[in-house]
Design a protein that fits this description.
Layout (H helix, E strand, L loop, with lengths): L9 E5 L3 H10 L4 E5 L12 H5 L20 E5 L4 E5 L18 H5 L5 H10 L2 E2 L8 H12 L5 E2 L2 E2 L24 H9 L3 E3 L2 E9 L2 E9 L2 E5 L3 E4 L5 H8 L12 E8 L13 E5 L2 E5 L3 H6 L10 E8 L6 E2 L4 E2 L4 H21 L7 E2 L3 E2 L25 E3 L14 H14 L1
Parallel strand pairs: 1-2, 1-12, 2-8, 4-20, 12-21
Antiparallel strand pairs: 3-4, 5-7, 6-14, 9-10, 10-11, 13-16, 13-19, 13-20, 14-15, 15-16, 17-18
């Protein structure tokens, strides 16, 4: 019979996205980990997009929230300004992201948080590559050359990708049919092979806190209330999910929500074939935003201006580093574009129009996509005072956060790799 001293310590990890999956795998080496995931297994888009495009004429696709009819793992919410997108299910939003492995930790480094060792480890462990350039279509090559001629300094995007398996189908954000794109379901599988337990369809509502420690995690599982207990609790439910759990548990978050708004500028160019290329194959870093070729599925299905066949559309994405102002209470998301956000977006749109004109789309034929966002975070930001512990002072001693909620400012860049590096360092501390 084992004694209490011999008992293996237990941990609960909430979420299976970028932060949760890495925490589960790392902690399972020392703890017995239970992973709680609100969603179910990821289901990719089942049909070729051109097979579904005809349904746009029926008028059935009236609201972006109906995207769940096509992608059950995509949760869409709306604010007066924009459409908010996040993943729900095993793998979190990484299953719906375009596989960008961009390092962007300058704000953390300024606070004294050094993630060099963690990034180096991730580069060794994960399939991160820029070798996909050999798979580029002529369209992508031409776009890259145009960015270069305009002095926009495009850089090939590092990707979580097995480039040899990539079919160039353009389905990166709706489910890779060849499994060329890597996502965090692989890390979850590793944790399970080491003995961790995964409970799907288990939504965390709040935490039971007493005496400065978390005593229990309250959930709704299969329609029933259930409480889980462990020595250590990690919240990685995402930049919109984690703050709601904290607030309902009596831990206040700050009104410093950022979301990285995305807007595509598009236009007709018959036969371009941009839909048959890797999404975001290269990135141009600008002041407060990035530019990249991107075919926006939300706009394609729900924006009336995008009624052309996808193969006849040219599209440039703007991803903005917005001001950290706003919040959520679980019922609604309070987030609007500030005057500074609007001014930056206006400059980015004009720059994108110039790019499209160089590609061959006259400005008078260009149109905008649907303003959306999918990188929420920042509502419990780290400061220099926590650079050694990565533990926010408002949290109980056995409760850690390991997702974008901790990031101190908007990135305006793909966040997955940076979140994973931060989570990996937290796991090492623990």
């Amino acid at each position: 019979m084992s004694t209490n001293a011999e008992r293996r310590r237990t941990a609960i990890v909430v979420g299976t996205g970028a932060g949760g999956a890495i925490m589960a795998r790392e902690l399972q080496k020392k703890y017995q980990v239970t992973i709680l995931e609100a969603g179910k297994d990821f289901k990719p888009f089942p049909l070729p997009v051109n097979k579904m495009a005809g349904l746009r004429r029926t008028g059935l696709f009236l609201d972006e929230r109906m995207i769940r009819l096509l992608l059950p793992n995509m949760l869409v919410e709306k604010t007066p300004d924009m459409v908010m997108v996040r993943g729900i299910g095993v793998g979190g939003t990484t299953t719906l992201a375009t596989g960008n492995a961009v390092r962007y930790d300058g704000a953390l480094r300024e606070m004294g948080i050094d993630l060099d060792a963690q990034f180096d480890a991730l580069y060794r462990e994960l399939p991160i590559t820029t070798e996909h350039r050999q798979k580029w279509t002529q369209t992508t090559k031409d776009m890259f050359a145009i960015f270069e001629r305009m002095g926009l300094d495009p850089v090939v995007t590092p990707k979580f990708l097995n480039a040899e398996k990539c079919a160039g189908c353009g389905h990166c954000a709706i489910g890779c049919p060849t499994d060329a794109k890597w996502d965090t379901r692989s890390l979850v599988s590793e944790a399970l092979s080491m003995g961790a337990e995964l409970i799907r369809g288990c939504r965390v509502t709040d935490l039971e806190i007493s005496g400065g420690e978390v005593k229990g995690v309250h959930t709704v599982h299969s329609g029933k209330k259930e409480t889980f207990r462990a020595d250590l609790v990690i919240l990685a439910a995402g930049g919109l999910g984690t703050p709601v759990i904290l607030e309902k548990s009596g831990i206040s978050c700050s009104r410093t929500l950022f979301v990285d708004p995305v807007l595509c500028v598009a236009g007709p160019l018959p036969g371009l074939g941009q839909d048959r290329q890797l999404l975001m194959p290269f990135i141009s870093q600008q002041d407060g935003y990035i530019l990249s070729p991107y075919m926006d599925y939300l706009s394609f299905f729900f924006n009336k201006d995008w009624r052309l066949p996808m193969k006849d559309l040219a599209s440039i994405m703007i991803k903005l580093a917005d001001e950290e102002k706003g919040g959520t209470d679980g019922r609604k998301i309070d987030k609007t574009m500030t005057p500074l956000d609007q001014e930056r977006m206006k400059c980015a749109v004009e720059q994108s129009r110039e790019i499209l004109e160089q590609i061959g789309v006259p400005k008078e034929q260009q149109f905008l996509g649907t303003l959306n966002a999918g990188h929420p975070g920042g509502m419990l930001p780290l400061t220099a005072a926590e650079k050694d512990t990565l533990h926010h002072p408002s949290l109980p001693g056995n409760l850690y956060v390991a997702d974008a909620t901790l990031l101190p400012k908007a990135m305006g860049n793909p966040p997955i790799l940076t979140i994973m590096a931060l989570a990996k360092k937290i796991a090492e501390i623990l």
